Amino acid sequence: MLIDYIIRRLIFAVPVLLGVSLITFILLNVVPGDPVVEMLGKHADPAAVEKIRNQLGLNDPLYIQFGRFLWNACRGDLGKSFKTGQPVTKMILDTFPTTVKLALSSAFVAIVVGLTVGIISAVKQYSFFDHASMIVALAGISAPIFWVAVVGQLIFGLHLKWLPISGYSTPKHIILPAVVLGIRFAASIARYTRSTFLDVIRQDYIRTARAKGLAERAVIFGHALKNALIPVVTVIGMQISGLLTGSILTETIFAIPGLGRLSLWALSNRDFPLVQGIVLFTAVIFVIGNLIVDISYAFLDPRVRLQ
């Protein structure tokens, strides 16, 4: 049953990945500029430019270029970088582990802080903690990441000198970027958790549990929390998928050699194969993330399993 569901979802993901690849390919080709000129410089010999364009297959019709990319991608070959000549797959896999460490660290901060604040705010609705935490959460969602990152560097790096402000050589370097990236998502999780938790604790079965004399902790963690987490899991799953695909601003500001920084470098240098490979890889991560979220529903809510 579960295997059939996974297979169906993977089949449905094929047109999604195909559409993402096609849109990316079109956008890259309608943007003004020539990637070969970017490689050789504006004063390059036109004959040399034309020769390299032929070698790279850029003079072929667009449908042939796109078909060649899809055929190679199906075999796990995303091509070679125009700028470095290295295989795109290798460049992505070399930087992705760094992004995974940053994403998991940020997700840990976001989930722990977000769930804790959201549950306490719901249980103590309209208290000072509730109002204060929701104001802080709104500020966390609204504040741009680059601004939070710079403020964090100034306070904790330059003035207090507790943490390094850039680089990626020790575990200590990951703390500040993880907190900066995690705070924004923690704010979203806190607001969703509070909202769903308030809906759940007003249900009849919660009143029945309290009427039976169960302790408040048993009511909250034994009855309310599991059902309240179902919509929150969707938010968490999507956010973790987004974190795994790399945060361009965070990795650039803190000089972290991850997938986000590689994406910015590829876009700046008009490295078509690298951009296409990163976008396709990102789409696959989102598909897998959504699939994991859907499967987790069956473990949180038996009704989903019956359906």
TrEMBL record:
It is a multi-pass membrane protein. GO terms for cellular component: plasma membrane. The chain crosses the membrane at residues 12-31, 102-123, 135-162, 174-193, 228-254, 274-300. GO terms for molecular function: dipeptide transmembrane transporter activity. Its main location: membrane. InterPro entries: BPD_transp_1_N (IPR045621), MetI-like (IPR000515), MetI-like_sf (IPR035906). Keywords: Cell membrane, Membrane, Transmembrane, Transmembrane helix, Transport. The keyword Transmembrane applies. Belongs to the binding-protein-dependent transport system permease family. This is Binding-protein-dependent transport systems inner membrane component. It comes from Thermosediminibacter oceani (strain ATCC BAA-1034 / DSM 16646 / JW/IW-1228P).
